[in-house]
Structure formats: C-alpha cells, structure tokens
Design goal:
Blueprint (H helix, E strand, L loop, with lengths): L1 H30 L3 H8 L6 H12 L4 H13 L8 H13 L3 H11 L6 H11 L2 E7 L8 E7 L2 E6 L7 E2 L4 E2 L2 E9 L3 E8 L11 E6 L5 E7 L4 E3 L2 E3 L2 E9 L2 E7 L9 E6 L5 E6 L9 E9 L2 E2 L3 E2 L10 E6 L5 E5 L9 E5 L1 E2 L2 E2 L3 E2 L10 E7 L4 E6 L6 E9 L4 E9 L10 E6 L4 E6 L5 E6 L4 E7 L3 E2 L1 E6 L8 E2 L2 E5 H4 L3 E3 L5 E3 L15 H16 L5 E6 L6 H21 L7 E7 L13 H7 L1 E6 L2
Parallel strand pairs: 28-35, 28-36, 39-40
Antiparallel strand pairs: 1-27, 2-3, 3-6, 4-5, 6-7, 8-9, 9-12, 10-11, 12-13, 14-15, 15-16, 16-17, 16-18, 19-20, 20-21, 21-24, 22-23, 25-26, 26-27, 28-31, 29-30, 29-32, 32-34, 33-36, 37-38, 38-41, 39-41
Amino acid sequence: MKTFKLYILFAVLTTGNLCFSQSSKADALYENRAYVEAAEIYSELPKTAVNLEKLGDCYYYNSEFDRAYKAYKQVYDLKNDTELTEAFYFKYFDVLKGTRKYEESDEISSLYLNNPINTKSFKSLLKRIIPYEYELKNITEDIGGSNFGVGIYGDKIVFSSTKNLKNPNYKWNSKPYLDLYEGKVTVGNSITLDSIQPFNKNINTSKQHESNAVFTKDGKTMYFSRNHKNRIDLDSTKIAVVSIFKAELVDDKWTNVEPVPFSSNTYSTMHPALNSDETKLYFASDMPNTMGSFDIFYVDILGDNSFGEPVNLGANINTVRREQFPFIAQDSTLYFASNGKNGFGGLDVFSSSINNDKYLDALNLGESINTEKDDFAFVVIDSLNTGYISSNRSGEDNIYTFKRIETERTYTIEGLVTDKVTGEILPNTTVTLFDEDGNVISEVIVGEDGKYQLTTKPNQNYSVEGFQPKYIPQIEFFDTNDKGNIEFNIELEIESYKDAEEIVTDDEFGNTFIELENIYFDFAKWDIKPQAARTLDVLVDLLKKYPRMEIQLGAHTDSRAGFEFNLDLSEKRARATLEYLVQNGISRARLTSKGYGESQPLVPCGENCTETEFSINRRCEFLILK
C-alpha cells in the first residue's frame, strides 16, 4: 500500500512537472510569435483563462476566427472568475464579427468597449449611401500560397506571395517568407494573371518578408516593405520591425536598396503609397504618439533622398486600433484598411475625400466588397471603375480584380429641435433646407416630437435653419461629401429672444414685449421728439441684430379727451413710430402699428387718475410677433 501511494505521488509530480514544462515551452513560442507551434501545445494544456486566451490569440493572429471564437468564448464564460482586459474584449468582439455573430459583437462593443453600435442599422444605412457596388474575381487562387498587395508597374502588377516553397518557413504561420513578384494581367473572356516572375535577390532576401511595392510613374524608383532580420525586445516580447525601403532601377536592375530615413529600428513603417504628383509618400506606422496600434501618416518628398517629418492624418482616419494599406487615387481620395472603424469583421476598406487639405470622415465601402474577414490593399485604376483588392475571405490571402458600378445614393438630414436653455422640445418649429446659394430646397414644420427629416443629394453644400416665432433662428452648415456619418443628425437648439436679451420679457398671458423707456409726445401731438428718438434707436439696433424679428407698435393714451379723439391720436402716434423705424433702415414688412386709444389702461382709474397714473397709461408698447 505504501508503495502504491508513492507511485501515485510520483505520477502527480511527474504530470505537474510535465505540464509546467509544456506551459513554459508554449509561452516561449507565443512570445516569439511562433503561433502555430504554440497553439498545438496550448490546446493540450489545462483550460485556464490564461491558456485559453493565448490559444485564442494564436488562432486570432493567423485569422483562424472560428477556432479563436471557441477559445475566447470559454474565456468570456469564465469572466466572473477572472478579470478580463479591454484588449481581450476587442479581440473577442473582432472574432464575433469575423464569424458573423453580429448581435453578440454589438453587445460586447456596447457593454465593454464604450462604443454602442447596431450592425443591422449600419448595413441598412450603407446600402443607401455607398457610391459603388463591386463585382470581384479571384485572379491568384491557382498560383499557390498567400498573395496580396498590388502595385501598378507599367503594364504589369507587382504583388507579394508565399508561393516560393524553397523559402524557409516563417514561424508565425508556418508558411514561406514573402517575396515580391511581377505578373501580367490578361483580359479576355476571363481575367488571368500570367508570366509571373520573382524580383531579383537584391529585392527578395532569405528569411525576410518583402511586400507592398509602389513605383514612380517613370518606373525608376520603388518603395516597398521589408522586415528587419533581428527582432527587438519590447516588454519581454520579441517584436519584428518592418521598414520601408527605397530601390532604384539602374541598367534594368534594381539596386541601391536602402531604408528610408524616417524608418527606425524600434518601430515599423510599412505599406508605402504615392500621391498622383509624387510629392507625398503615405504609409502605416506604429511610431510613438500614434493614436492606435498602427496609424496612417505621410511625409513630403523633398528630393535627393530626403523627406519631411511624418504627419499623422488624424482622427477622421485613424483610431485606437489598426489603420494600414493606404492608397491615393488620382482625385486625391484616400483608400485604406481599418479594424477600428465600424465594419463587418477583420480589416474593412474605407475611403475618405479631401477638403481644404483635410481628409473627411471615412466611409465604409459596403458589403459588396467588405466581408467578415480581412479585406485590404485596395487599388483603383484611375479613370476606370476597375482595380484590385486583397482578401482572405476564402481562408487564404488572394488578389481580386473588381469592377465597380455606381449606385443611387440617398442622403438624409434629420434631427430634433429644442430650446437652447430649457432643453424642451419645440413643436411647430419650421426647419428649412437651403442650397449653397441660399435657395430654399425644402421645408418642414416639426410635430409634437420635435423631429425633422429632409432629403439631400450627394456632394452638395447645404445649410439648415430652425425657426420658431419669438426665437432666434439657428443655422447649421454641412456638406454631403463622402463621410462616415452620411446620415446627418443635426440637433437644432434655438434660443428665445427673452433668454438672449435682458430687455425682452413675457407677460402673464404669454405675450413677449421689448421693454424700453416710455416714449413721450406733446399734448395732442404725434411727432417724434429727440428723447423718444434715442429710445427708438435702441429698438432699431435690436431689429437689425435679429433680421427675422417682427413687431407690432402699439400706442395708448390716457382717458382725457373723447374716445374717438384718443383712438385717432394713438393710431397717428403708432404710425409715426413705425415711420421712424422705416427711415432708419427697418423693412416696413416687419412692422405693424395699432392705436388702442384709452381702451387698455394699465391703471384703470377712469376720470379720477392722478398725473402719475395718466402718464403710466400714456405709453408705447413693442410686442414681438415673430
């Protein structure tokens, strides 16, 4: 019995030591990005949250989202027993989208990533606003390996591929290292990629990746991405650094291959792209002070192998996640891939137009080109609605040609009208849409819910105005260029005259008046005296400040003299006041006058009024109508 107990103890210790040894080996492979080998070991280890998350990572970083989901789901189910990071929630959210579990991914984003989204509504919106739909054809499915990243090179294309089986395998994914190839695209009854040849050994190296080449128009300069031979230690993790290299064509051979001066040994620069006049080089980088893991930058090309300082494209393009693979079309539209903006899973392709040297909010290109997998490296052939895109939608990176077909887009502007001070909804407000020349396009009066919706057209400049009687109209300017937020939501917060001006007040019946010093007239006279003119000048200034304000000028007398005489006198005084305003630049259409005679005394003292009470009843009032 004693011998049996010792045997059990030995077996337990041996098993524990074996698990510890295998765990350490898996961790070492994981830290060195040997994800395929690491996954094999993690799959056999105890199902702890740590082991399961690393197992999921091994699949996630090789785009095996179905397997990653199974591992991450187990980690998520253990969340009551372990603390999960934002990084985990993003990866889980990403694989949920990558496996088309959109309702679950929306829930994770809302609960843990502080980003409420509704993919169903997002899809519906894109169907109305995307400028093109795309027809795709795979042109590399028969050549073997992973293939992606097209550069236009004369009448050929250049792309990166793992098709060279003589290359050593890269531990990350157990596939051959990437090389650059050129091939000719033939368009006939079908589109084929023929005459595929690798670049020379000055470009394609052993145990290094070369990818994403771009060429100057004269074909004599090439920029491309290549990883460094040695990894760097970052937080006890080995990181592979990628740099942009420049090469020159001399005597039909690529030579003078050197990294660009803004590259580094401590951060990556990759995915070069030239603008149409070749004055700027765009690229992706994780250099210090980026907004996320990779941002898109540009540098000015100054000549003599010199460049300006990197410029980050900012929040309309970059997010806290990953933006890569920029491409600049001839019309300066920027196309790029992102997994940080609202999309369908993995990397999606976005576009952004430029306005006043600033890129606008990015627009997802829609479901006809973007999938739940990685879609990236978009290249459009200028003047034609054709081009190339790379995608792993089939399980392997492949290059697709596309033909894009223009769509009928519907833009809308919608919003809510509220009181700027109280926040209360303002029913019956008139909302008017104007074109850039100030012409009225459409108009609507909001209902009890205070909401409005108006139809607009793409690529136009507009303004929208909210107008309510006794309120200052609010005007907002916007355009319908290609932006991520095409369904415009503009809340109109309008301020009442009485909140904006101290001399404007409401009475107990809801009437709104402008309170000024009383205007005095000589007995039985109606001409405007100098003191009255100074008071009315204040009113002139107010009416000029608010050109939509309309008022009624009301004149009142005391009860001395006869009723008919007082009524006629008050009407003359009201008209005299109106004429003074007109003479000082106020449109007659904004003014009405009315004489009330003695019919509305403030002090109803009849024939027994004091001089003070008579003077109170003799007055001019300025009632705001609109």
